[in-house]
Amino acid sequence: MCEELGFERLLDEEGFFARLLGRAPSGAGRDPLYGPDLPVVLLTGGPGMGKGRLLRAVRDRFAAKVPVIHLDCASPVYTDRADPEPDARSATTEALVEVARRLCTWQGTGGSFAFPRFFAGVAMIATGVAEGTPEAVATEAERYEGLAQRQRLRGLVTGDFWRGVLRGTIRNLLTTLSGQALDPYSAAVSNALLDALFERLAPRGRAELERIYGAYPGAAGQPRIGLRILAADFRAGGEAREVAESFLFRALREDLEAAYASPSGWLRRVGRPGLLLDHAESPLGERLLRAVLTDRRAGQRDRVVIVGTARRPDGGAFLHGGLPPQEVTPPAEYRPGDGAPPAWSRRSDAGADRAPLADGVLLLRMPLLTGDQLRRETVRRQRRAEPEGGTNRRRIDAAVARLSGGRPHTVIRLAAAASDFRMPADANDRDILDAPLRLPGLPGDDAPNARSRTCCCGN
């Protein structure tokens, strides 16, 4: 598969991602790397190195065996979904809700996941809807009610200490206020929602919400106050909203951790869940990375594997706390060509809680293709039979090698363009750029002269 060209060793049964996720593509278990304190892995490399292609290959190889979610952080869909209710939704919350919804339908080993902790937070920010009436809040909150309970698995619903967070509960409680003369954002609306979340919960479920939302900044151990402040921070926007969004991401990861750490999860679930963030250098991607890195620096531990892309070789300026380049300490890195992944650990000295976010990162330097891999790809795409060592084949191989620099995506495009191309007798390497590009799946590949697309690198 061209998707995996150059990544075979990273993706195979004993490769880096099998060990990072704790399970091989075949389903066999693997001793996991780096636990319980996990680094965030950032793929680095210039255009044409295949960062996005590698994330898609990880998803395709592993998602049938472990819950791996691929998210395109540059997609406008999350902003588009948030726009109708800007005080109750954001691109970040919509992305997190999508992650949760996909995992709610996970059908692999251990069954689907539920997100009652996360649900409590997003339901509370629903009080920021434009109308602010009980009916409007109920309608907004109902977008999320399916996140609070697992699908039935062999006739059973696990996690029953969350009973009471059921479909219709919020609407039934909030609509009792309908017809009353309430101002938008009335405290009565928030109180009704909080009653819906707490009053019918079993003691363990109530204790979990108290533990999590009692720890919200300013809550002083009071979960109802924490949820109110979270909703107010979200409506305030700016840095306050980022604090609320970060906390919601933490609640989602805590739901995943609970699903694995429970007695039934310990027996049934294998490996580690993964979140793959393509275009993580975008504003949405940076917010998600900043949130998880900040939490882990502060001591929060979870088993969610976070893998993102980075355009800059140092992983991104936000990782280094505004330090000038000459004072930056590079994150740990892994070059696949060097062999086994390196040991990784976080700083443990007195200043660890103030270390730059880069301290929690492992950079994976994208591999270049070897000469053998490059030749195999060009030969595989040749449509005209030619003996090994034939003049045209040698010239095509040399041209692809020199112009691509071994960048996998560029090799694929150049080799495809040269699939039935004959180098002119007086050609130089750049003449291959005049080859018509016909690569299935790329728009416009039937154009008669694809010079600009042939040399396009992309990710």
Automatic annotation (TrEMBL):
What organism, scientifically named, is this protein from? Streptomyces tuirus
Q: Region Disordered: list its residue ranges.
A: 316-351
Q: Please give the InterPro entries that the UniProt record associates with this protein.
A: P-loop_NTPase (IPR027417)
**Protein name per the record:** Uncharacterized protein
Q: Which SUPFAM superfamilies match?
A: P-loop containing nucleoside triphosphate hydrolases (SSF52540)
